[in-house]
Design goal:
- This protein has 21 helices and 2 strands.
- A two-stranded parallel sheet has the order 1-2.
- Helix 1 packs across helix 19, helix 5 packs antiparallel against helix 6 and helix 6 packs antiparallel against helix 14.
- The protein has a domain of about 280 residues.
- About 70% of the residues lie in helices and about 0% in strands.
- The protein is globular and about 90 Å long.
- It is mainly α.
């Protein structure tokens, strides 16, 4: 029995890390439970149509993949350029069975958590050599922000087509740069080959993803090249290969005939210089909006963590001001596709999801870099002055760390309690599950499916939903049977016309 006794970490950072990871896992449980009441909507039907019919007629995964490739090709010619996204959108789980659609949430959360963890591990642990506990604390804190505060968690984790187009591709971008950093770091040939192959594949995927991820990846490649030149990484010449693959894929994406078709429904293209100016302006506006109380509290919590992290490493942190400016330009570039293509400030929430994630990561990494620079500057001071400052910090944190942690915890509990439930993903899930909204919505969808699958009926009337859980609140079919959502639903279930009756 003694061998089964749980051993707690010895260090304070280790205990904080353990508590944070447990809380994060607990916060995911309601989100995952909500997944089992989720159902496909809208573009899930349109993009998955061909693959669904292929499965129904053949029950062959190969035929499903062929149909998905056909969908990607047709979309490239007739609707929009992101051909890689279109391929994955065509493979939504309900293609095989609607019972599999809850996998959407598991896939998207898993991709986000895995990619963020790997990227930060490679950057902070492998490159900057910070202690494992600090890296994990930073990672979990960022993941809390990226799962709880999104503009549209419903489109990030519950709507497959929107999520795979943005969240999944954003995750692929993080993995791409993690593999490239790992390629530079490792000396083993076998690992270099694996990292290079993975980087090339992910470079192709991100180039053919949504325009925000595609452009952001291209910009980050330039930043990465500058980094390699500054540090004289001659071996980085080999990374021109994934760069060229990414640019080629991105060119295929932006040159698609289907882009012209979609532009007909917008305000028209904006002048390039005007769109760049607007991108910087919108970036500043949204930065102010995203600096909410939870984010500020997270930064306050991370300040001693980041400082202690940099104080245990020997690394150079040159030109922090230039790094900050470059980060702002990188973030602003994420707004450029919308300002250029749409000519308007209206940006879909699913797009803002990944831009906000990028912003939070950049702020935390810039804070880490700034502290690293400050710590390196302290090394230039007189030894006695430097040691006195460091001793003061150590004694201060040792004396008041309990007060600090209690204050942060109390503030967090207070803020969670008084925050509107729809503003926090887990609180929204708990609310809709406890009130029975998710369960009622699920039963009403099953009733609707029963009506839509009746044999010998070509025209079907279905009632509207009496409740719509916030995380599952995506646009429903219309009272107009000619609406594209109605037509997609009708075709999916083999009907000619689907009407929506307003009952509730």
């Amino acid at each position: 029995m003694k061998n089964l006794k749980l051993k707690l970490p010895d260090s304070l950072a280790g205990r904080i890390c353990l508590v944070l990871e447990i809380l994060f896992i607990l916060s995911l449980i309601p989100l995952l439970v909500m997944a089992f009441y989720n159902h496909p909507v809208g573009d899930d039907f349109t993009y998955g149509m061909a693959a669904h019919f292929a499965w129904e007629s053949s029950h062959s995964l190969l035929e499903v993949v062929k149909a998905a490739l056909t969908t990607a090709r047709d979309s490239w010619f007739s609707y929009q350029g992101p051909f890689v996204s279109a391929f994955f959108m065509a493979l939504q789980p309900a293609v095989i069975s609607e019972r599999l659609y809850p996998l959407t949430t598991f896939i998207m959360l898993g991709a986000l958590i895995l990619s963020t963890s790997i990227f930060l591990k490679v950057l902070l642990r492998d490159w900057y050599q910070i202690r494992k506990e600090y890296c994990r604390i930073i990672t979990v804190t960022l993941l809390f922000l990226c799962t709880q505060l999104l503009p549209a968690a419903s489109e990030a984790f519950y709507w497959y087509c929107g999520a795979v187009h943005y969240i999944f591709m954003h995750s692929c971008m993080l993995l791409l740069f993690a593999y490239m950093l790992s390629w530079l770091k490792t000396t083993k040939k076998s690992r270099k080959i694996i990292y290079m192959l993975c980087a090339c594949l992910l470079a192709f995927m991100t180039g053919g993803a949504n325009f925000v991820t595609g452009l952001l990846t291209a910009v980050l490649f330039v930043v990465f090249a500058v980094f390699c030149i500054y540090y004289k990484k001659k071996q980085a010449c080999w990374l021109v290969l994934p760069w060229c693959i990414n640019l080629s894929s991105f060119f295929i994406c932006v040159s698609a005939p289907g882009n012209l078709v979609r532009e007909e429904g917008t305000a028209g293209l904006m002048e390039p210089l005007s769109s760049i100016y607007q991108a910087f302006r919108y970036c500043l506006n949204y930065m102010g909006e995203w600096n909410n109380s939870f984010f500020i509290l997270a930064l306050l919590f991370l300040i001693p963590i980041l400082w202690n992290a940099v104080s245990h490493i020997q690394a150079s942190f040159p030109l922090p001001g230039l790094i900050l400016l470059a980060s702002f330009c990188v973030l602003s570039s994420a707004f450029a596709p919308n300002t250029y293509a749409l000519g308007t400030s209206v940006i879909f929430d699913r797009t803002l999801n990944i831009i906000m994630m990028t912003y939070y990561m950049l702020v935390i990494l810039n804070l880490f870099y700034l502290f690293g620079w400050l710590h390196s500057r302290l090394q230039a001071y007189d030894v006695s002055q430097r040691d006195s400052l460091l001793c003061f910090w150590q004694s201060f944190t040792k004396k008041y760390h309990k007060v600090f942690l209690v204050s942060i915890s109390a503030s967090l509990i207070f803020m969670i309690f008084f925050t509107y439930h729809q503003d926090l993903a887990t609180k929204s899930a708990v609310h809709d599950l406890s009130e029975g909204y998710a369960q009622s919505y699920h039963q009403e969808v099953l009733h609707r499916i029963a009506l839509l699958t009746m044999e010998g009926v070509d025209e079907v009337w279905v009632p509207n939903f009496s409740v719509r859980p916030h995380l599952l609140d995506l646009e429903d079919i219309s009272t107009d049977p000619e609406n594209w959502r109605n037509q997609a639903t009708a075709e999916w279930y083999g009907k000619k016309i689907v009407h929506l009756s307003i009952v509730y």
